[in-house]
Amino acid sequence: MPTTLTTVSSTYGTTTLAEIEENLTKVGRELGVNVVCFQTNSEGEMVDALHYARSLGGVVMNPGAFAHYSYALHDAVDSILPVPFAEVQISNNYAREEFRHKSVTARKAAGIIAGCGHYTSLGFEP
């Protein structure tokens, strides 16, 4: 599996996935929360990870493009409730193409954060 993430820098910025994971883990330590990072391009692996999350205290997930059409992810999120679930999107979906304006996973989320770049995953800008 690749260890780097290639993205369009004008849409997603230049912060690497490793840097995002490092920042999330650091904030988690400061808050006394164990952060488990997982990245995949496979819808099935994402469903499996969500099922694993039943044993965790909560899920913050960036489903990427899967958010717009993956009813499998929608159903997997539904199956883990009441485990708290939040959806994040690095870019502002509503400033992009029309098909990105709908998220099938967001309707199950306790909250949604979008459009704040890599700070989106942290839920705030340091």
Outline of the structure:
This protein has 126 residues and is of the alpha/beta class.
Which short descriptors sum up this protein?
126 residues; alpha/beta; three-stranded parallel sheet; 4 helices; 3 strands; 31% helix; disordered N terminus
Structural notes for this entry:
- By secondary structure, this protein is α/β, with parallel strands linked by helices.
- Strands 1-2-3 form a 3-stranded parallel β-sheet, with no helix packed on it.
- Helix content is 31%, strand content 10%.
- The termini are far apart.
- The protein contains 4 helices and 3 strands, in the order αααβαββ.
- The protein is globular.
Topology diagram in text:
Elements: H1 9-12, H2 17-31, H3 43-52, E1 59-61, H4 71-80, E2 85-89, E3 111-114
Helix pairs in contact: 3-4
Helix share of residues? 25-40%
Structural class of the secondary elements? Answer: alpha/beta
Tertiary shape: globular
Largest sheet: 3 strands, parallel
Task: Report the β-strand fraction as a percent range.
Answer: 5-15%
